[in-house]
Every structure is written in C-alpha cells, then in structure tokens.
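Throughout our pipeline, every protein is held as a single compact record rather than as scattered files. Such a record has a labelled line for the sequence and another for the backbone structure tokens. The remainder of this section carries one protein's record, kept here as part of the documentation:
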Amino acid sequence: MEANNKEGCRDKSGNSTTSAAIVAMMREAQIQPSMQRMAVLELLAAERCHPSAEEIYSRLLPSVPTLSRTTVYNTLHLMAEKNLVHEIEIEPGVTRYDLAARPPHGHFLCRGCGRIFDIELTVSPDDVPGEFVTDSVDVFCRGLCPECAAAGSAETD
C-alpha cells in the first residue's frame, strides 16, 4: 500500500520519471510543455501523495518562485481534461490528483490519521454491462488503516 499524510508525501512510488518522459507524456496528450506544467507533472509522477492543488502549489513554490495558484489550478484542469491525471474526490470539497498512467487502483481514506492509501482495484470498466460506455471507475473506501486500527484496539484493551 502507498500512502500520504496531511503534511506531504510519506511514501515514494519508487519510479523515477525523467524530464524527457514527462515531455513525451505531455506531447502525447497534446499539451504544450512549460516549466510550470512539467513541475506539476513531475511531482505527481515522482510521488504517490494524492495532493490537492493547494498542496502542489505549496510544495512547488520554493523551487518555482514564479508559480501562481492560478497556473497550478489551470494546469491540473487541463491535464485532467486530457486524461494525464485523475481527479480524486474522496473527501467532500477537496479534489486530489493522481497520475493517470499508473495501473488502475482504488483509494482508502483513513478517518484516524487522514492518509490516503492506494489499494488494489478489483473493479474495472470491463465489469460494467456492455450497453454502457465507461470512461473511468472510482473506488473509495473509508475506515481505519492498520496503524490506527491497532492504536484504537490498544486504547480499548
């Protein structure tokens, strides 16, 4: 399982995506590469944080001081429109982002620590009856992660 925490990414994906690969992904999606767009996509490719637009802005600002919130929001909307990133709305009023090139997976939100974990996906677009045209499948679970569940049972013992 991969997870994030509220302060930033905790677990790295282990995949290193080169700048050339980022440019190729953007060009394939018919998005003109720019320094700001590449920085956003590189952050999403490098780590499985499921960050919000605000978290992306905060994390990139020290290394890209010319970055604006508007640029981050516009970049994310464009990349979602071009299916380069997925919008995840597991929490009410908070849109998080995930790289679309990753294998299909679901998400688990721990109500104890607030981390979001990637979980193996057992549902696919192929499971939908043939007369429906499916663009995406979103699976969200909520509950307690193993650490929070163990801490909760330790408190009641």
